[in-house]
Protein: AcrR family transcriptional regulator
Amino acid sequence: MAPRPKNPPPDRRAEILDAALRLFAAKGFEAATNAEIARAAGVTAAALYYYFPNKEELFRAAVREHVGTFVPTVADLTRADRGLESLRELLRRAMDFFTDGKSQMVLKIVLAEGPRRPEIRQAWIDQTAAILEMLTPFIMHAIAAGQIRPVDPRLAFMLLQGPIMSAVVLRDLLQIPFMQGIENDAVVDALLEITLPGLMPNR
Amino acid sequence: MAPRPKNPPPDRRAEILDAALRLFAAKGFEAATNAEIARAAGVTAAALYYYFPNKEELFRAAVREHVGTFVPTVADLTRADRGLESLRELLRRAMDFFTDGKSQMVLKIVLAEGPRRPEIRQAWIDQTAAILEMLTPFIMHAIAAGQIRPVDPRLAFMLLQGPIMSAVVLRDLLQIPFMQGIENDAVVDALLEITLPGLMPNR
Amino acid sequence: MAPRPKNPPPDRRAEILDAALRLFAAKGFEAATNAEIARAAGVTAAALYYYFPNKEELFRAAVREHVGTFVPTVADLTRADRGLESLRELLRRAMDFFTDGKSQMVLKIVLAEGPRRPEIRQAWIDQTAAILEMLTPFIMHAIAAGQIRPVDPRLAFMLLQGPIMSAVVLRDLLQIPFMQGIENDAVVDALLEITLPGLMPNR
Amino acid sequence: MAPRPKNPPPDRRAEILDAALRLFAAKGFEAATNAEIARAAGVTAAALYYYFPNKEELFRAAVREHVGTFVPTVADLTRADRGLESLRELLRRAMDFFTDGKSQMVLKIVLAEGPRRPEIRQAWIDQTAAILEMLTPFIMHAIAAGQIRPVDPRLAFMLLQGPIMSAVVLRDLLQIPFMQGIENDAVVDALLEITLPGLMPNR
DNA sequence: CATGAATGAGCCTTCATTCAT
DNA sequence: AATGAATGAAGGCTCATTCAT
Structure:
């Protein structure tokens, strides 16, 4: 007899996490109700308690699931250190990453709940730390190689990441009309053509 | 059944708005309860309804009170157009402004509730629009004068404002340990010495 | 110098009682709020407490003002005992009386609150008692005179008053469509031509 | 946090409706609180919201449940048209029906809330319409058969139903002392012996 | 594995009432 | 004579959570 693959095994847990992330991002932790999440996941509110001890944990799990996803990308690019080329690629990837739907959900959540929920903040801290730990030696190396001028790596980070964040927040999250129509590439190009040269050593 | 403190007739409305802003920033719209806000303002929850029709309106009023406060500063500096000097001053002032307690409260609220509350988003949009309307001609003028190279003013805005936002969000709102100890001046200096030169025309 | 008649002295108390009656009839005791009544009377809610000790008393006063107004009419007609002629006149007057706006307000209130408010019920009891006290001897007299057949005066009362009440309740208070268009006169005529003959002794 | 009585799974919904009807009749819609109703039904106030979307709907459901219960009786009696005999029976049944506890609750509610709540009024309208639709041809038929004299069926209705309503309202709802002790039979007899003969054609 | 039924706690809101002015 | 400001008490409703089935 043939194996019974049956219709795709409904991964309830994943479905719930998915619905949860969506609703937490859309309405915030308090305003998103268990009932709503459950409905979106196709189960009953009571069912949530089979998979998670409580709403708080469901929330954490949903966020954890997606925070830190960008770290491997950074790892790859810094490891294969091709200098400025890697940096350019990194900026491109970062911009694309934070333009993705799920990333924006997480970002929304982190910006909204991070300031008041230690665990959320911590998750973001961990992620940032991981990235900076890889980026810092990379930048130091570039400085030593005379490719960029000596700066506090944290400031360099802000200078490069800030505009990306600004673009995502103003254009996507707050949807400021004036900022609509600015392409991801335009932002990255501006970084590459303006900020990056500024970072280079005066000849 | 209803005694009442008397003596110095304080500005209840202002006190309530103050407490409201504080608590909304600290806990979010949903999590901040009327009772809490009232207590912080030294009145009863019922008193809130004497001054505002409901929680929602109190919230809006509290936010409106402080959104847009930075606009006059931009107006002053762009009007007295002293070129790059004005821009430098503007960056310094912006950094200081968003480091102020009240501004950070508003920022927290806007980042948290803006994506889901049209009125909040609109308030921020209006503010940004006002600033950009003054900044755009200013930048165009600088381009015409050959002081900076030709760029989309919106991208210039992102390049300059992004790092400020990044600093405030990462260092102050999310309190990422790695970012602690970075002074406002350092950020502004980095902008002035790195991004700004990058904006200048190639010699 | 001429007398100073000034603009009609605002009889606040009367205005308040008026507004109160209107609103109590329209929305019921609980649903009619002090603020509403006050607004309708052109004063502040606090002002009500200058004229009445509390909402309850205002309510009673408003009802008392108008309950029993029909008694004098009955008194006149039974005193000047012109037999059946008086009875006919009485029915006509009763029908007209309860068709009047204020009477219907009171009736609405009595039917709604009477069953649960002893004072209201009592006011109605007193009124009914007064009427029956005058009507009973009148009917007894008519029986003795052989004008109507011997019946329990209370039943006679029901037979004659019931249809009037039915008309007012069904047509005016509940506004049953089917009953619209029935004139007061038609009801009175039916009573005079049908019930009254039935009351007469068999020839 | 939420234990619960179990054992005989009683019909909660019915129990709630029952308690609701009782309390709404006794204290009116506004004055009857959810907590009270719930207590009377042996559940928590929150449980009401499991079965009904809100207080208003609970109210409607409770009333609807019992309005119109008398219609089938009328149907039976008019269908099996035994002329005046049927009418006599109908009056007897009507009197008994409206003397029943539940009917009086509903009547209280309709008289109290009908004038201000369209849905309640409508329910009563529908019921009355149903009855009149059966009664009208019945009366026309009796007229045609020369059993009663030609009258507007609506007036005939008032003449017969009015005294019943009067009896119930004055004796039972308002509990006017003077009207106590009047038996249902006495009212029906009066109708049969006085009003009915009046309705008959003059010989 | 999932649900239906139910609850306790708490929140927003309304309202009658007070009292200094 | 009347009001503005404020309150205490309560009410309707929501929601996370539980548990027997």
